[in-house]
Protein backbone atom coordinates (compact mmCIF):
# COMPACT_ATOMS: atom_id res chain seq x y z
CA UNK A 1 0.00 0.00 0.00
CA UNK A 2 1.41 3.36 -1.02
CA UNK A 3 1.47 5.64 1.99
CA UNK A 4 3.14 8.69 0.54
CA UNK A 5 2.52 10.06 -2.86
CA UNK A 6 3.63 13.36 -4.29
CA UNK A 7 1.36 15.51 -6.38
CA UNK A 8 -1.88 14.82 -4.53
CA UNK A 9 -4.19 17.79 -5.07
CA UNK A 10 -4.67 20.35 -2.31
CA UNK A 11 -8.41 19.66 -2.30
CA UNK A 12 -7.88 15.98 -1.53
CA UNK A 13 -5.40 16.75 1.23
CA UNK A 14 -7.76 19.25 2.77
CA UNK A 15 -10.46 16.53 2.94
CA UNK A 16 -8.22 13.95 4.66
CA UNK A 17 -8.48 15.47 8.17
CA UNK A 18 -12.26 15.41 7.80
CA UNK A 19 -12.22 11.72 6.86
CA UNK A 20 -10.01 11.14 9.86
CA UNK A 21 -12.44 12.96 12.16
CA UNK A 22 -15.54 11.22 10.78
CA UNK A 23 -13.96 7.81 11.05
CA UNK A 24 -13.06 8.59 14.68
CA UNK A 25 -16.70 9.58 15.34
CA UNK A 26 -17.86 6.31 13.75
CA UNK A 27 -15.53 4.20 15.89
CA UNK A 28 -16.62 6.11 19.01
CA UNK A 29 -20.20 5.15 18.20
CA UNK A 30 -19.26 1.48 17.72
CA UNK A 31 -19.28 1.30 13.91
CA UNK A 32 -16.36 -0.78 12.60
CA UNK A 33 -17.25 -1.17 8.95
CA UNK A 34 -18.64 1.36 6.52
CA UNK A 35 -19.41 1.56 2.81
CA UNK A 36 -18.38 4.55 0.72
CA UNK A 37 -22.15 5.15 0.36
CA UNK A 38 -22.67 5.52 4.11
CA UNK A 39 -19.51 7.59 4.54
CA UNK A 40 -20.74 9.76 1.67
CA UNK A 41 -24.09 10.38 3.31
CA UNK A 42 -22.48 11.44 6.59
CA UNK A 43 -19.91 13.69 4.98
CA UNK A 44 -22.09 15.17 2.22
CA UNK A 45 -19.49 14.21 -0.37
CA UNK A 46 -20.40 11.85 -3.24
CA UNK A 47 -19.44 8.18 -2.83
CA UNK A 48 -17.43 8.30 -6.05
CA UNK A 49 -15.53 11.29 -4.72
CA UNK A 50 -14.63 9.31 -1.61
CA UNK A 51 -13.48 6.29 -3.62
CA UNK A 52 -11.47 8.58 -5.87
CA UNK A 53 -9.88 10.42 -2.94
CA UNK A 54 -8.82 7.22 -1.21
CA UNK A 55 -7.58 5.65 -4.43
CA UNK A 56 -4.94 8.38 -4.52
CA UNK A 57 -3.27 6.59 -1.67
CA UNK A 58 -3.60 3.04 -2.92
CA UNK A 59 -7.26 2.36 -2.14
CA UNK A 60 -8.30 0.78 1.12
CA UNK A 61 -11.75 -0.61 0.29
CA UNK A 62 -12.78 -4.15 -0.54
CA UNK A 63 -15.52 -4.81 -3.09
CA UNK A 64 -18.71 -5.83 -1.28
CA UNK A 65 -17.26 -5.23 2.17
CA UNK A 66 -16.62 -1.51 2.28
CA UNK A 67 -14.02 0.00 4.53
CA UNK A 68 -12.72 -1.22 7.85
CA UNK A 69 -13.09 2.04 9.76
CA UNK A 70 -10.23 1.37 12.17
CA UNK A 71 -7.71 0.39 9.49
CA UNK A 72 -8.76 3.22 7.19
CA UNK A 73 -8.44 5.78 9.99
CA UNK A 74 -5.01 4.48 10.91
CA UNK A 75 -3.82 4.64 7.32
CA UNK A 76 -5.14 8.17 6.83
CA UNK A 77 -3.43 9.08 10.10
CA UNK A 78 -0.14 7.81 8.69
CA UNK A 79 -0.60 9.79 5.50
CA UNK A 80 -1.20 12.90 7.62
CA UNK A 81 1.89 12.12 9.69
CA UNK A 82 -0.14 11.58 12.87
CA UNK A 83 1.68 8.34 13.67
CA UNK A 84 4.68 10.40 14.81
CA UNK A 85 5.15 12.92 17.60
CA UNK A 86 5.58 16.47 16.30
CA UNK A 87 7.30 18.68 18.88
CA UNK A 88 5.78 22.18 18.70
CA UNK A 89 6.54 25.56 20.21
CA UNK A 90 4.26 28.53 20.69
CA UNK A 91 5.53 32.02 19.99
CA UNK A 92 3.22 34.53 21.65
CA UNK A 93 1.88 33.41 25.01
CA UNK A 94 -1.10 35.76 25.16
CA UNK A 95 -4.70 34.57 25.35
CA UNK A 96 -4.67 32.78 22.00
CA UNK A 97 -1.25 31.19 22.55
CA UNK A 98 -2.40 29.91 25.93
CA UNK A 99 -5.64 28.62 24.43
CA UNK A 100 -3.78 26.69 21.72
CA UNK A 101 -1.27 25.34 24.25
CA UNK A 102 -4.12 24.04 26.40
CA UNK A 103 -6.19 22.70 23.52
CA UNK A 104 -5.14 19.06 23.68
CA UNK A 105 -3.55 18.70 20.23
CA UNK A 106 -1.10 16.29 21.90
CA UNK A 107 -3.60 13.46 21.44
CA UNK A 108 -2.80 13.72 17.72
CA UNK A 109 0.93 13.85 18.34
CA UNK A 110 1.40 17.63 18.46
CA UNK A 111 3.30 18.07 21.70
CA UNK A 112 4.00 21.56 23.03
CA UNK A 113 7.63 21.62 24.19
CA UNK A 114 8.22 25.36 24.53
CA UNK A 115 6.49 28.74 24.70
CA UNK A 116 7.97 32.21 24.13
CA UNK A 117 6.94 35.82 24.54
CA UNK A 118 8.51 39.27 24.79
CA UNK A 119 6.39 40.31 27.78
CA UNK A 120 8.49 39.84 30.96
CA UNK A 121 5.27 39.57 33.01
CA UNK A 122 4.63 36.23 31.32
CA UNK A 123 8.09 34.78 32.02
CA UNK A 124 7.79 31.52 33.91
CA UNK A 125 3.99 31.31 33.46
CA UNK A 126 2.94 27.70 32.91
CA UNK A 127 1.05 26.49 29.85
CA UNK A 128 0.33 22.94 30.89
CA UNK A 129 3.81 21.74 31.95
CA UNK A 130 5.77 24.21 29.81
CA UNK A 131 7.17 27.46 31.22
CA UNK A 132 7.06 30.61 29.11
CA UNK A 133 10.55 31.79 28.18
CA UNK A 134 11.67 35.11 26.75
CA UNK A 135 11.93 35.38 22.98
CA UNK A 136 15.67 36.07 23.01
CA UNK A 137 16.19 32.55 24.35
CA UNK A 138 14.58 31.09 21.22
CA UNK A 139 17.69 30.48 19.05
CA UNK A 140 19.47 28.63 21.85
CA UNK A 141 16.34 26.59 22.56
CA UNK A 142 16.04 25.59 18.90
CA UNK A 143 19.69 24.62 18.86
CA UNK A 144 19.25 22.28 21.81
CA UNK A 145 15.81 20.77 21.17
CA UNK A 146 14.09 18.98 18.34
CA UNK A 147 11.22 21.22 17.24
CA UNK A 148 9.19 20.65 14.10
CA UNK A 149 6.35 23.16 14.25
CA UNK A 150 6.20 26.76 15.45
CA UNK A 151 2.82 28.32 16.21
CA UNK A 152 2.79 32.09 15.74
CA UNK A 153 0.26 33.95 17.87
CA UNK A 154 1.87 37.38 17.70
CA UNK A 155 0.97 40.70 16.03
CA UNK A 156 1.62 40.91 12.31
CA UNK A 157 4.29 43.59 12.82
CA UNK A 158 6.56 41.02 14.50
CA UNK A 159 5.60 37.97 12.46
CA UNK A 160 8.02 38.27 9.55
CA UNK A 161 11.07 38.87 11.73
CA UNK A 162 10.21 35.99 14.07
CA UNK A 163 9.50 33.70 11.11
CA UNK A 164 12.94 34.48 9.74
CA UNK A 165 14.58 33.62 13.07
CA UNK A 166 12.66 30.34 13.07
CA UNK A 167 13.67 29.45 9.53
CA UNK A 168 17.33 30.32 10.17
CA UNK A 169 17.22 27.91 13.10
CA UNK A 170 15.88 24.96 11.16
CA UNK A 171 12.07 25.23 11.48
CA UNK A 172 10.20 24.05 8.37
CA UNK A 173 6.59 24.32 9.52
CA UNK A 174 4.77 27.40 10.77
CA UNK A 175 1.19 27.51 12.01
CA UNK A 176 0.50 31.19 11.55
CA UNK A 177 -2.24 33.13 13.33
CA UNK A 178 -0.70 36.56 12.64
CA UNK A 179 -2.63 38.72 10.13
CA UNK A 180 -0.22 38.36 7.29
CA UNK A 181 0.41 35.72 4.63
CA UNK A 182 3.82 34.45 5.67
CA UNK A 183 4.01 31.83 2.92
CA UNK A 184 4.59 34.61 0.39
CA UNK A 185 7.82 35.62 2.10
CA UNK A 186 9.54 32.41 3.16
CA UNK A 187 11.69 29.81 1.32
CA UNK A 188 9.87 27.07 -0.56
CA UNK A 189 10.92 24.31 1.81
CA UNK A 190 9.02 25.96 4.66
CA UNK A 191 5.36 25.07 4.90
CA UNK A 192 2.96 27.60 6.36
CA UNK A 193 -0.63 27.08 7.37
CA UNK A 194 -2.32 30.45 7.83
CA UNK A 195 -5.33 30.69 10.13
CA UNK A 196 -6.89 34.12 9.69
CA UNK A 197 -9.63 34.24 12.32
CA UNK A 198 -10.86 37.71 11.44
CA UNK A 199 -11.26 36.71 7.79
CA UNK A 200 -13.33 33.74 8.84
CA UNK A 201 -15.55 36.05 10.87
CA UNK A 202 -15.88 38.41 7.88
CA UNK A 203 -17.04 35.53 5.65
CA UNK A 204 -19.68 34.78 8.27
CA UNK A 205 -20.67 38.44 8.30
CA UNK A 206 -20.96 38.47 4.49
CA UNK A 207 -23.17 35.40 4.52
CA UNK A 208 -25.28 36.77 7.34
CA UNK A 209 -25.72 40.13 5.60
CA UNK A 210 -26.92 38.32 2.51
CA UNK A 211 -29.59 36.25 4.24
CA UNK A 212 -32.81 38.15 3.99
CA UNK A 213 -34.48 36.32 6.87
CA UNK A 214 -31.75 37.25 9.32
CA UNK A 215 -31.92 40.91 8.40
CA UNK A 216 -35.69 40.92 8.69
CA UNK A 217 -35.62 39.25 12.11
CA UNK A 218 -33.06 41.70 13.33
CA UNK A 219 -35.05 44.73 12.25
CA UNK A 220 -38.22 43.32 13.76
CA UNK A 221 -36.43 42.82 17.05
CA UNK A 222 -34.82 46.25 17.07
CA UNK A 223 -38.22 47.70 16.25
CA UNK A 224 -39.79 45.80 19.13
CA UNK A 225 -37.16 47.06 21.55
CA UNK A 226 -37.70 50.65 20.51
CA UNK A 227 -41.41 50.48 21.15
CA UNK B 1 -22.68 51.12 -7.52
CA UNK B 2 -24.12 47.75 -6.70
CA UNK B 3 -23.29 46.86 -3.13
CA UNK B 4 -25.07 43.60 -2.73
CA UNK B 5 -25.38 40.92 -5.31
CA UNK B 6 -26.62 37.36 -4.96
CA UNK B 7 -24.90 34.43 -6.57
CA UNK B 8 -21.31 35.60 -6.12
CA UNK B 9 -19.08 32.53 -6.05
CA UNK B 10 -17.72 31.25 -2.75
CA UNK B 11 -14.16 31.67 -4.02
CA UNK B 12 -14.67 35.39 -4.67
CA UNK B 13 -16.27 35.91 -1.28
CA UNK B 14 -13.42 34.11 0.43
CA UNK B 15 -10.95 36.50 -1.22
CA UNK B 16 -12.77 39.68 -0.14
CA UNK B 17 -11.49 39.67 3.47
CA UNK B 18 -7.97 39.36 2.08
CA UNK B 19 -8.47 42.35 -0.21
CA UNK B 20 -9.81 44.22 2.81
CA UNK B 21 -6.75 43.32 4.88
CA UNK B 22 -4.24 44.19 2.14
CA UNK B 23 -5.88 47.52 1.45
CA UNK B 24 -5.70 48.27 5.18
CA UNK B 25 -1.98 47.43 5.16
CA UNK B 26 -1.47 49.71 2.17
CA UNK B 27 -3.26 52.62 3.82
CA UNK B 28 -1.25 52.06 7.02
CA UNK B 29 1.92 52.40 4.96
CA UNK B 30 0.67 55.62 3.34
CA UNK B 31 -0.38 54.26 -0.07
CA UNK B 32 -3.65 55.84 -1.24
CA UNK B 33 -3.83 54.71 -4.85
CA UNK B 34 -3.00 51.34 -6.34
CA UNK B 35 -3.25 49.63 -9.73
CA UNK B 36 -4.63 46.11 -10.10
CA UNK B 37 -1.07 45.20 -11.19
CA UNK B 38 0.48 46.33 -7.91
CA UNK B 39 -2.32 44.78 -5.85
CA UNK B 40 -1.79 41.59 -7.85
CA UNK B 41 1.92 41.49 -7.03
CA UNK B 42 1.31 41.91 -3.32
CA UNK B 43 -1.48 39.35 -3.15
CA UNK B 44 -0.03 36.78 -5.56
CA UNK B 45 -3.28 36.78 -7.51
CA UNK B 46 -3.33 37.75 -11.19
CA UNK B 47 -4.33 41.31 -12.05
CA UNK B 48 -7.14 40.06 -14.29
CA UNK B 49 -8.44 37.94 -11.41
CA UNK B 50 -8.57 41.05 -9.23
CA UNK B 51 -10.40 43.09 -11.88
CA UNK B 52 -12.81 40.20 -12.40
CA UNK B 53 -13.43 39.78 -8.66
CA UNK B 54 -14.16 43.47 -8.12
CA UNK B 55 -16.32 43.70 -11.24
CA UNK B 56 -18.71 41.30 -9.51
CA UNK B 57 -19.66 44.19 -7.28
CA UNK B 58 -19.87 46.89 -9.87
CA UNK B 59 -16.19 47.64 -10.46
CA UNK B 60 -14.41 50.32 -8.50
CA UNK B 61 -11.38 51.04 -10.70
CA UNK B 62 -10.83 53.90 -13.13
CA UNK B 63 -8.94 53.34 -16.37
CA UNK B 64 -5.44 54.79 -16.07
CA UNK B 65 -5.87 55.72 -12.41
CA UNK B 66 -6.22 52.39 -10.65
CA UNK B 67 -8.04 52.05 -7.40
CA UNK B 68 -8.45 54.56 -4.61
CA UNK B 69 -7.39 52.31 -1.74
CA UNK B 70 -9.52 54.05 0.88
CA UNK B 71 -12.72 54.04 -1.17
CA UNK B 72 -12.17 50.46 -2.34
CA UNK B 73 -11.58 49.25 1.22
CA UNK B 74 -14.69 51.03 2.45
CA UNK B 75 -16.81 49.54 -0.31
CA UNK B 76 -15.48 46.02 0.29
CA UNK B 77 -16.16 46.59 3.99
CA UNK B 78 -19.79 47.40 3.15
CA UNK B 79 -20.10 44.27 1.01
CA UNK B 80 -18.79 42.23 3.95
CA UNK B 81 -21.23 43.93 6.29
CA UNK B 82 -18.45 45.59 8.30
CA UNK B 83 -20.15 48.99 8.22
CA UNK B 84 -22.60 47.72 10.84
CA UNK B 85 -22.16 46.55 14.43
CA UNK B 86 -22.73 42.81 14.82
CA UNK B 87 -23.54 41.89 18.42
CA UNK B 88 -21.94 38.55 19.23
CA UNK B 89 -22.07 36.09 22.12
CA UNK B 90 -19.56 33.43 23.10
CA UNK B 91 -20.77 30.01 24.23
CA UNK B 92 -17.96 28.25 26.05
CA UNK B 93 -15.82 30.54 28.19
CA UNK B 94 -12.77 28.26 28.45
CA UNK B 95 -9.34 29.23 27.16
CA UNK B 96 -10.38 29.53 23.51
CA UNK B 97 -13.62 31.40 24.29
CA UNK B 98 -11.67 33.86 26.43
CA UNK B 99 -9.03 34.26 23.73
CA UNK B 100 -11.67 35.06 21.09
CA UNK B 101 -13.48 37.44 23.46
CA UNK B 102 -10.23 39.32 24.04
CA UNK B 103 -9.11 39.28 20.42
CA UNK B 104 -10.27 42.74 19.39
CA UNK B 105 -12.76 41.80 16.68
CA UNK B 106 -14.79 44.81 17.83
CA UNK B 107 -12.68 47.07 15.62
CA UNK B 108 -14.44 45.41 12.69
CA UNK B 109 -17.85 45.75 14.31
CA UNK B 110 -18.06 42.37 16.04
CA UNK B 111 -19.00 43.35 19.57
CA UNK B 112 -19.09 40.71 22.31
CA UNK B 113 -22.26 41.34 24.34
CA UNK B 114 -22.50 38.08 26.29
CA UNK B 115 -20.60 34.95 27.31
CA UNK B 116 -21.98 31.65 28.59
CA UNK B 117 -20.67 28.44 30.09
CA UNK B 118 -21.92 25.47 32.12
CA UNK B 119 -19.02 25.59 34.59
CA UNK B 120 -20.21 27.40 37.75
CA UNK B 121 -16.58 28.28 38.59
CA UNK B 122 -16.59 30.62 35.59
CA UNK B 123 -19.82 32.42 36.57
CA UNK B 124 -19.18 36.16 36.84
CA UNK B 125 -15.67 35.96 35.34
CA UNK B 126 -15.04 38.97 33.12
CA UNK B 127 -14.12 38.74 29.44
CA UNK B 128 -13.35 42.39 28.76
CA UNK B 129 -16.46 44.09 30.14
CA UNK B 130 -18.79 41.10 29.78
CA UNK B 131 -19.55 38.76 32.70
CA UNK B 132 -19.85 35.04 32.06
CA UNK B 133 -23.39 33.78 32.67
CA UNK B 134 -24.66 30.25 33.05
CA UNK B 135 -25.91 28.52 29.92
CA UNK B 136 -29.45 28.10 31.24
CA UNK B 137 -29.80 31.89 31.17
CA UNK B 138 -29.18 31.89 27.40
CA UNK B 139 -32.78 31.76 26.09
CA UNK B 140 -33.86 34.67 28.30
CA UNK B 141 -30.77 36.64 27.27
CA UNK B 142 -31.54 36.09 23.58
CA UNK B 143 -35.11 37.15 24.16
CA UNK B 144 -34.03 40.44 25.70
CA UNK B 145 -31.00 41.37 23.58
CA UNK B 146 -30.22 41.79 19.92
CA UNK B 147 -27.62 39.14 19.07
CA UNK B 148 -26.56 38.30 15.54
CA UNK B 149 -23.64 35.92 15.90
CA UNK B 150 -22.95 33.08 18.33
CA UNK B 151 -19.42 31.75 18.71
CA UNK B 152 -19.29 28.11 19.79
CA UNK B 153 -16.19 27.12 21.71
CA UNK B 154 -17.59 23.99 23.36
CA UNK B 155 -16.98 20.24 22.98
CA UNK B 156 -18.60 18.61 19.97
CA UNK B 157 -20.87 16.51 22.22
CA UNK B 158 -22.74 19.66 23.29
CA UNK B 159 -22.54 21.60 20.03
CA UNK B 160 -25.64 20.30 18.26
CA UNK B 161 -27.94 20.80 21.24
CA UNK B 162 -26.65 24.32 21.90
CA UNK B 163 -26.90 25.20 18.21
CA UNK B 164 -30.54 24.13 18.24
CA UNK B 165 -31.25 26.33 21.28
CA UNK B 166 -29.59 29.23 19.45
CA UNK B 167 -31.58 28.69 16.26
CA UNK B 168 -34.86 28.35 18.17
CA UNK B 169 -34.10 31.71 19.75
CA UNK B 170 -33.52 33.56 16.50
CA UNK B 171 -29.75 33.23 15.86
CA UNK B 172 -28.87 32.98 12.16
CA UNK B 173 -25.07 32.98 12.27
CA UNK B 174 -22.82 30.55 14.11
CA UNK B 175 -19.03 30.73 14.26
CA UNK B 176 -18.28 27.14 15.12
CA UNK B 177 -15.06 25.91 16.73
CA UNK B 178 -16.54 22.58 17.91
CA UNK B 179 -15.23 19.50 16.05
CA UNK B 180 -18.35 18.84 14.08
CA UNK B 181 -19.82 20.24 10.86
CA UNK B 182 -22.88 22.01 12.19
CA UNK B 183 -23.96 23.31 8.80
CA UNK B 184 -25.05 19.79 7.86
CA UNK B 185 -27.63 19.75 10.65
CA UNK B 186 -29.18 23.21 10.74
CA UNK B 187 -31.89 24.97 8.70
CA UNK B 188 -30.82 26.61 5.46
CA UNK B 189 -31.36 30.15 6.71
CA UNK B 190 -28.66 29.67 9.35
CA UNK B 191 -25.11 30.38 8.19
CA UNK B 192 -22.27 28.51 9.82
CA UNK B 193 -18.56 29.19 9.52
CA UNK B 194 -16.64 26.17 10.80
CA UNK B 195 -13.09 26.69 12.11
CA UNK B 196 -11.52 23.30 12.66
CA UNK B 197 -8.19 24.08 14.28
CA UNK B 198 -7.03 20.47 14.55
CA UNK B 199 -7.71 19.91 10.84
CA UNK B 200 -5.60 22.93 10.02
CA UNK B 201 -2.78 21.50 12.11
CA UNK B 202 -3.13 18.13 10.34
CA UNK B 203 -2.80 19.81 6.93
CA UNK B 204 0.41 21.38 8.20
CA UNK B 205 1.60 18.00 9.41
CA UNK B 206 0.83 16.44 6.01
CA UNK B 207 2.78 19.13 4.19
CA UNK B 208 5.66 18.87 6.64
CA UNK B 209 5.80 15.08 6.33
CA UNK B 210 5.99 15.44 2.57
CA UNK B 211 8.90 17.86 2.53
CA UNK B 212 12.00 15.79 2.17
CA UNK B 213 14.31 18.47 3.55
CA UNK B 214 12.36 18.75 6.79
CA UNK B 215 12.41 14.99 7.36
CA UNK B 216 16.13 14.83 6.63
CA UNK B 217 16.91 17.69 9.01
CA UNK B 218 14.86 16.10 11.72
CA UNK B 219 16.56 12.74 11.44
CA UNK B 220 19.97 14.36 11.36
CA UNK B 221 19.16 16.26 14.52
CA UNK B 222 17.67 13.26 16.33
CA UNK B 223 20.73 11.28 15.27
CA UNK B 224 23.01 13.98 16.63
CA UNK B 225 21.18 14.00 19.95
CA UNK B 226 21.43 10.27 20.32
CA UNK B 227 25.17 10.25 19.85
Question: Main beta sheet of chain A, described?
Answer: 7 strands, mixed
Q: Overall pLDDT of chain A, averaged?
A: 87
Radius of gyration of chain A: 22 Å
- Principal-axis shape of chain A: globular
By CATH, the architecture of the largest domain in chain A is named 3-Layer(aba) Sandwich
How would you describe what is shown here?
The structure is a homodimer of 227-residue chains. With 227 residues, the first copy, chain A, is α/β, with parallel strands linked by helices. Chain A folds into three domains: 10-79, Arc Repressor Mutant, subunit A; 86-195, NAD(P)-binding Rossmann-like Domain (Rossmann fold), CATH 3.40.50; 202-227. Chain A is 45% helix and 16% strand. Chain A is built from nine helices and nine strands. Chain A has helices at residues 10-28, 36-43, 47-55, 69-79, 95-101, 138-144, 156-168, 197-209, 212-226, and strands spanning 33-34, 67-68, 86-91, 110-117, 126-127, 130-134, 149-152, 173-176, 191-194. In chain A, the strands form two sheets. The first copy, chain A, has a seven-stranded mixed beta sheet, with helices on both faces. Chain A has a two-stranded antiparallel sheet with strand order 1-2. In chain A, strand 5 and strand 6 form a beta hairpin. The N and C termini of chain A lie far apart (69 Å). The interface between A and B is large, with 67 and 67 residues.
